């Protein structure tokens, strides 16, 4: 084998592998977004020429480009173990799978260590019809799917320069295995926590939907209970988790409880439609109706003097004062 010629050939193909990695990553991002699967990161790397040459020589490859399956490597880091199977299912549907293997399944019941799901794949022939995948269907890429904690283990182990059990000094193996066991348990506990959180949210939202949400002095203020309160009382208004989160932070800052918000709403509710219209009529038609978080802020501006101090606009302060005098004096 002419290694200089092989090196030149690899360098000539690098841009194609870069294009493959970039476009596959972007496609996976879109696919996971459509499936509502959140992830920490999706990224790719293309093997450098020296690494490619070293592997070719070490493994005595006769057809290096066919036999080297990880010239383009893509990694998906997700949050929960159950998401791995969902992501795998999407990948298997959207790409041509050459090989699939689960490193975790290779571990015995009493073993702990590297856990990651690997797939060797290529782009489907029909994808070549699009300009960004033209000429890329014959190139392979290796895809690794792992959780954040699996990734932490793999990266730290790699940083310690231990690539296999044989390379790891005996005195460190036990400690590494213990850490791996703890991370595996933590992965399972995060999964349980996620399910419990979903159940709690579902219960709150069901109560909100049926207008059976009870708010007491002891009711905890958190993003779920606040969102449920607004769903129950302002069901037809636009909602957004980011807006709810910002409102929650303000309520915590100004020491306002969920019961305080409920009491304020009970006071404002009989006059709310008229008050909202009068206030917004003074904004030169910029807004027609508030979203959920906007209603809550308006309620607190009218009923909580300390909260109202945050208003920087003199015009806003005047309009609030005018409404207070009209409806509450």
Automatic annotation (TrEMBL):
The keyword Coiled coil applies. It holds the Pfam family RelA_SpoT. This is PpGpp synthetase catalytic domain-containing protein (RelA/SpoT-type nucleotidyltranferase). It comes from the Bacteria. Signal peptide: none annotated. Keywords: Coiled coil. Residues 176-203 form a coiled coil. SMART domains: RelA_SpoT. It comes from Arenibacter nanhaiticus. InterPro entries: NT_sf, RelA_SpoT. One of its GO terms (biological process) is guanosine tetraphosphate metabolic process. Residues 44-168 form the RelA/SpoT domain. The keyword Coiled coil applies.
